[in-house]
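Slide 14.
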Amino acid sequence: MEAAPTVSVADAPAGTEKLGAEWISVGVPDIGSLIAAVARPTGDGPFATVLLLHGSHGFAQEYVRLAQDLAHAGLLSVAACWFREGGGAGQRFITPIVWPKAPPVPDPLSDQSMQTVSALVRTARNLPDALPNRIGLFGHSRGGGAALSYMLRAGDVQAGVLSSSRYPRQLADLASRMTAPVLMLHGTADDPRDGGTEFTNVEMARNFERALCAAGRPVEAVYYADGRHNDIFAHSTRYQDELKRMSAFYRQHLVGTA
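Slide 15: predicted structure.
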């Protein structure tokens, strides 16, 4: 059995003081020290909870903003730095938050990623005002691949939203293991020049959607015409559309309202 993560209140990382977020430190045995922003809804809990996993460009203020916007929709939201050393073509679309104590960037399908996401899910589930059996995942790009791998292998979350996610063939082969509803948000022009990879090509996404449908698993997919890999951060109209869709999706499957 995995050792429990050690959770404590943390100071805001440098440059984030004005974001108005609550910060926690999550110590994961044999992995490292993670940091996460917690955005709480108004009113009395407990609340359905969403864990957000960033992409290869690294942890960023944009993920904290997304967590805060989801909190406005009534969802307790946790934006976590699950690895350091962000970079690549997609970094120009975000405002990085540096946290050198996090582990190096992992393969999203690795056991290390599985252990890291598991510790963060456990942390989210055990927040004082969280509903422990109403947990959702959000992942962008590499974070989407890690979220998807976790959903297929652990099966203990109740909803997942994948934005410009990785969809490697080996995960499509596991589609019948999916136990939670999935919302896929993907651009038809996803390309490595904007931070994508061969695994984020729109045909990989369509193939995974077909695999879920063939297995009789609940999936909703939205394909943005000419949409690119990081449009959720590059264009406000795409951001607002994804936010509206994921908020309704989480409310439907985690709260019971849309």
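Speaker note: Residues 236-255 form the longest helix (20 residues).
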